[in-house]
Amino acid sequence: MPGPLCVDELGTDWLDAGTLARTRHTSPSVRGDLRPRMSRRASLGFTVAYADAEGSFARAAATWQAEQPDTRFISHRFKTIGDLVYIFKLLNQQAKDLNDCYCRGALFLHSSQPQQSEDGETGGIHAASFRPTTLAEGRYAEEVLRPQGLLVSTAHLTLLKSLQPLRWARGATLNVVGCLSGGSPGSDESVAQVLAGSQKVRSVGETGKAYFSSEPDRYVAITQGVRKVYLRAFHMKRNLVIGVLDGNLDGLLSPGAPMPRRTFEPR
Q1: Contact, 131 vs 140, CB < 8 A?
Q2: Which residues on neighbouring strands pair with residue 182, listed in sequence order?
Q3: In which element (H, E) is residue 138 found?
Q4: Which pLDDT tens digit goes with each residue over 107-135?
Q5: Among candidates 87, 73, 75, 266, which has minimal Cα distance to 163?
Q6: Which residues of 183-212 are buried (b: 16+ CB within 10 A; e: fewer)?
Q7: 132-155 pLDDT, tens per residue?
Q8: I want to staple 124 with a disulfide (CB 3.0 to 4.6 A). Which of 32, 156, 193, 232 is the partner?
Q9: Main-chain dihedrals φ then ψ at residue 64, nearest 5 degrees
Q10: How much is the pLDDT for 135?
Q11: Are 179 and 14 in contact (CB under 8 A)?
């Protein structure tokens, strides 16, 4: 199948036809390895990937992980915002149990630019809505998720800032990989910017709409059998239109090339 766009459109129908995550979610459980992949390697890292139906985010996370040979990893997948909040708490506890700190981490997910206005908060990290299918899940939603503000499909600005601060090593880096995760060419408002401040760690994000590609330095649509999957913002399709509207013609000069990432230092 051709590589899907990370985020097709925002709002009530933001999920693209490839993931169908709103209708395929069946439980609040976190998916993934709950124990680190132990080895004698020098440093500790983690990956957290959105659990789309095709596993594209997890494949991109595995590709990134394989390119860090000096690191032992803890890997998780999430379906809902409640899962994501729990995973941050779990990651913190796992580092404590290992008496270690994270030197690097990466989030592979749906995202948009988080903003706050008089009308409320918009944008952030997107996930599937929690849809109870049993009486027990209904009680869980009303008695646990709703009081904590977790019965939502988007982690807006306030919720992003409240994610459990992790144990970071000096000089650590958090990669946030998703649409506009590092802002747009004309604005640095982004999930990576927020997390750099709240997590107190250098954070890196994409500056355009993200696509899955089988090559890191040029866009090549992925197929089901491809082993390596990269999630990057490339100079193509919507990013070209946005660039032209912003007066940035770089994409026209190098179509299909990756867009620059943006780095935020902890404040």
Answers
A1: no
A2: none
A3: helix 135-140
A4: 999 999 999 888 889 999 999 999 888 99
A5: 87
A6: bbbeeebbbbbbbbebbebbbbbbbbbbbb
A7: 889 999 998 898 889 888 889 999
A8: 156
A9: -60, -40
A10: 92
A11: no
